[in-house]
């Protein structure tokens, strides 16, 4: 990046100079960040992360936020998805939870807590004073470096989130969760189809091509007894 000590421009693309103590992997990560249009857009528009554009793009396609009054954001840190919810629905009641600390967002109930804790679900519903009509989840398990194990651990989180959604969502509510290439497990898809009128998979443009992440979008909740 011209004028920056961290890189130099070649044909409009920032190239990162090597530095003592910086690994090749970290150099590649920094270079990717410098050249990522979503990173630049997030900084320009005040979003806390490029992930905000994933939800914006999913909303553009599936019209998820248009009538949301109560929203729960699972795996919310650093807060990009929560910011999108409030931008689209500034009067919505919103609760967000993550193991990681998250800077305050006015009007949002934020919990630094494990979603798997026994009292977490009740706290989230109480914070928005009623049944949510949208639950969004960008949760992923902490990786151990073994792809299959990492996917199994994340899918266990998705399963827990689905159970939560089918217990607390308002009728006609919607649920979004991060999954991996190939989509949600067939048994989980079957469970979602039992409870929702529409279940689809999507990979928003903001999701990096090399990433294995996809999202499952379930709409039209039939009710807890569905």
TrEMBL record:
Stretches assigned to the Ribosomal RNA methyltransferase FtsJ domain: 47-221
Keyword Cytoplasm (UniProt): yes
Residues reported in the UniProt entry to bind S-adenosyl-L-methionine: 79, 81, 98, 114, 138
Active site positions, chain numbering: 178
GO process terms (BP): methylation
Keyword Cell inner membrane among UniProt keywords: no
Tree of life domain: Bacteria
Reactions listed under catalytic activity: uridine(2552) in 23S rRNA + S-adenosyl-L-methionine = 2'-O-methyluridine(2552) in 23S rRNA + S-adenosyl-L-homocysteine + H(+)
Protein keywords: Cytoplasm, Methyltransferase, rRNA processing, S-adenosyl-L-methionine, Transferase
Predominant subcellular localization, coarse grouping: cytoplasm
GO terms of molecular function: methyltransferase activity
Region of interest: Disordered: 1-24
Localization annotation: Cytoplasm
EC number(s) on file: 2.1.1.166
Family, as annotated: Belongs to the class I-like SAM-binding methyltransferase superfamily. RNA methyltransferase RlmE family.
Function: Specifically methylates the uridine in position 2552 of 23S rRNA at the 2'-O position of the ribose in the fully assembled 50S ribosomal subunit.
Protein name: Ribosomal RNA large subunit methyltransferase E
Organism the protein comes from: Sphingoaurantiacus capsulatus
Gene, per the UniProt record: rlmE
């Amino acid at each position: 990046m011209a004028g920056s000590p961290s890189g130099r421009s070649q044909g409009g693309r920032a190239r990162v100079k090597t530095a003592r103590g910086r690994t090749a992997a970290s150099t590649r990560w920094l270079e990717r960040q410098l050249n990522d249009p979503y990173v630049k857009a997030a900084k320009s528009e005040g979003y806390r992360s490029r992930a905000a554009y994933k939800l914006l793009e999913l909303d553009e396609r599936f019209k998820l936020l248009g009538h949301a009054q109560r929203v729960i954001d699972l795996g919310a840190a650093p807060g990009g998805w929560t910011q999108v919810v409030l931008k689209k629905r500034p009067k919505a009641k919103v609760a967000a939870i993550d193991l990681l600390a998250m800077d305050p967002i006015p009007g949002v109930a934020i919990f630094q807590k494990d979603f798997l804790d026994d009292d977490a679900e009740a706290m989230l519903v109480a914070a928005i004073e009623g049944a949510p009509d949208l639950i969004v989840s960008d949760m992923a398990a902490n990786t151990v470096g073994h792809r299959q194990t990492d996917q199994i651990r994340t899918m266990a989180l998705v399963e827990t989130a689905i159970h939560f959604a089918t217990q607390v969502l308002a009728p006609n509510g919607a649920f979004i969760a991060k999954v991996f290439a190939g989509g949600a497990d067939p048994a989980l898809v079957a469970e979602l189809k039992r409870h929702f009128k529409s279940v689809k998979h999507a990979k928003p443009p903001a999701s990096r091509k090399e990433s294995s992440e996809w999202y499952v979008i379930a709409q039209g909740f039939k009710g807890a007894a569905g």
